[in-house]
Amino acid sequence: MNAKTATAQQARQVTMSRPPIVSAEDWERARQELLVKEKALTRARDALAADRRRMPWLAVTKTYAFDGPQGKASLLDLFEGRHQLVVYRAFFEPGVYGWPEHACRGCSLGADQVAHLAHLNARDTTLAYVSRAPQEDIARLKARMGWEMPWYTITDSFDADFGVDEWHGHNVFFRDGEQVYRTYFINVRGDEAMGTTWSYLDATPLGRQEVWEDSPQGYPQTATYKWWNWHDNYDPDAAPDQRWAEVTDAGEAAFRNREG
After folding, report:
1. What domains are there in the chain, each with its CATH number?
2. What is d(CA 236, CA 94) in angstroms, rounded to the nearest whole number?
3. Which of 34, 172, 176, 248 is most buried when burial is the number of CB atoms within 10 A of its CB?
4. Distance CA 198, CA 185 (A)
């Protein structure tokens, strides 16, 4: 260990008041007490997502244009043919800290957390990033950082109209034919939780689309767990894999027995 490393480690050492050291039985008892609160939080999160699915929608009446890897793109094009769209406004443009080598550190940290898009796509949902940087800079940044999400260039008032001209945020949209609706908006610290397949789906009007969810009548829902797949193996026309169905049925039964 060199002197520089030793100095850095010493700088990280802090004096802290540690919790009590207990027996395995007392530790498990404390964990079970905390688990009650954690399950309550999970149920509250599910209830919040159910409320989002009942949010009123706002019709998007303006036409928006973006630059994309294949040229000009409309807001409808960003859906890539799916019904749901989550758009994250990332700050990568002149004047932003890190330009032109990097996007904003916070937006970059968020981009590093984005789950594999195949799982979202399997639930009829598209994720897209938008910034004001030109496409050649976006392509360079994505290649450098290993990011694969679709990323478009804002060319008009989209960011100002949807509350992301001065700060980051996720806007959620739904497409009914040619008509687009704004259904939800998450920003500030709400963005911290985004990045997983579940956090994106829980922000959408259709949710995870599993039968256990509290959704309005007629919303599309399929059997719990059965649609899950390897990210390179999704086939929208394939029936649920029978062996996987048996595995998940057994898992659900075990969970029910444990909680019963």
Report:
1. 58-202 (3.40.30.10), 223-260 (no CATH)
2. 41
3. 172
4. 16
β-strands 169-176, 151-154 pairing: unpaired
Q: What local confidence, expressed as pLDDT, does residue 9 receive?
A: 63
Could you tell me the two tokens for 113?
Answer: 């957390």
Share of the chain above pLDDT 70, in %: 95
What count of other Cβ atoms lies within 10 Å of the Cβ of residue 91?
23
User: Please, which residues have CB within 8 angstroms of residue 86's CB and are 6 or more apart in sequence?
Assistant: 120, 125, 126, 127, 128, 170, 171, 172, 173, 200, 203, 204
- Supply the pLDDT for residue 175: 98
Quick one: angle between helices 105-112 and 135-145, nearest 10?
60
Neighbours of 161 (CB within 10 A): 14
Stated pTM of the model: 0.92
Q: What is the mean pLDDT of residues 40-46?
A: 98
Cα-based distances in Å from 135 to 88, 129, 193: 16, 12, 28
